[in-house]
Amino acid sequence: MTRVIVAGAAGRMGQRISYMVRQNPDLELAAAFERPDNPAVGKDVGENGGFGTTGVVISPGLESVIDQGDVIIDFTFHTATMEFAKTAAAHNTAMVIGTTGLSQDELAELKGLAEGAFPCVQSPNMAVGVNVLFKLVEKTAAILGDAYDVEIVEAHHRMKKDAPSGTAIKLGEMAASGLGRDLAEVGVYERHGIIGERSDKEIGIQTIRAGDIVGEHTVYFAGAGERIELVHRAHSRDNFARGAAVAAAWVTDKDNGLYTMFDVLGLADF
Hints:
Layout: E1 2-7, H1 12-23, E2 27-34, H2 45-49, E3 58-60, E4 71-74, H3 78-91, E5 94-97, H4 104-117, E6 119-122, H5 128-144, E7 149-156, H6 166-179, H7 183-186, E8 187-188, E9 203-209, E10 215-223, E11 226-234, H8 238-251, E12 257-259, H9 261-265
Parallel strand pairs: 1-2, 1-4, 2-3, 4-5, 5-6, 6-12, 7-9, 8-9
Antiparallel strand pairs: 7-10, 10-11
């Protein structure tokens, strides 16, 4: 059975990941940790998360529990994630990373660490439905081509720290891939004032932050006289947490390197 360490265990995602790990018959919730100054340190992770006593106490920092698990699941903050990755590399411990907001430099560093020391699944969204959406967007863009404008709108809760979401950026990258474009060159993230006509190549990504929206993403393919909308709405964080648990069970016996949910779900060649 794979022993799991949950990072940021007192947060909203950490709580649901801990719960979903407990529901997976192939996994054992072996340890959980938070920042040393978090008030949840010392509490039972299940009691803190509202799903009963587990016998696993939230510990102060990764170093205090790194030897207790086979894989770390991390959905925290990009700077913290990179520090955890360095610790994982030093201990050859697998990782599952759902943290968003990682820069291109951080992703490159993560890839180097993983290839040298541990297997790692990294994805901006681990929900099964979203990963199917990624592939559908790429294929739809390739079929429709330049005759259709591509726009992406994402909505999340008011507490989300990064914008646009990692999922929205990935959707933009998949659309750009299908169209033979580079999102870094054609992505448009803000419109205000007299901006002139839309260019033929741009891919718009717009952001909504409000209330307690778990996560919604809509991709518009708008042509002359018609449009197609591909939509994913998350009703619960459990979809992300469940996918992370599946990835944790999958990754531990893999070769060192950086993988995606496409690998986990068998979608790489879809």
